[in-house]
Amino acid sequence: MDELKTESRRIAASILFFAITATAAIVLFITAAVAWLAGIIGSTAAAAAVTGGFFALLALIVYSVGVRQSIEYLHRRIETVYEVAETVRKGYRYASNVVNSFLSDILK
User: Fold this and answer.
1) Dihedrals φ, ψ of 93, to 5°?
2) Cα distances (angstroms) measured from residue 79 to each of 57, 85, 93
3) How many folded domains does the chain comprise?
4) How far is CA 67 from the centre of its chain?
5) Gap between the Cα atoms of 70 and 76, Å rounded
6) What is the mean pLDDT of the chain?
7) Domain of 100?
8) How far apart are alpha carbons 53 and 55 in whole angstroms?
9) Angle formed at CA 60 by CA 57 and CA 65, multiple of 5 degrees
10) What average pLDDT does the segment 12-24 reach?
11) For residues 51 and 37, is the Cβ–Cβ distance under 8 A?
12) Cα 22 to the chain's mean position, in Å?
């Protein structure tokens, strides 16, 4: 059991270290891209705006390709859950009315 916990911690630490180094690499890459573009354009603000616009476009493409499909899938699942809940509610009302009319007939 202790060996399993140790292995789980080792895997978690590896994933965490990977995430931190990947984030640092991305930040350094973007910084270098802005510095390079600023050298070409002559304006750091314009270079930052161009780089930011590029990554905003990249984020839009990623959303359009991947995330939107996942959100639509979840939306369909939620609609299915709603339909099932509505059917259960109708069934409960019908059963309640049957029991209510049965008890009303008995108690009269």
Assistant:
1) -65, -40
2) 31, 10, 21
3) 1
4) 7
5) 10
6) 87
7) 2-107
8) 5
9) 130
10) 92
11) yes
12) 20
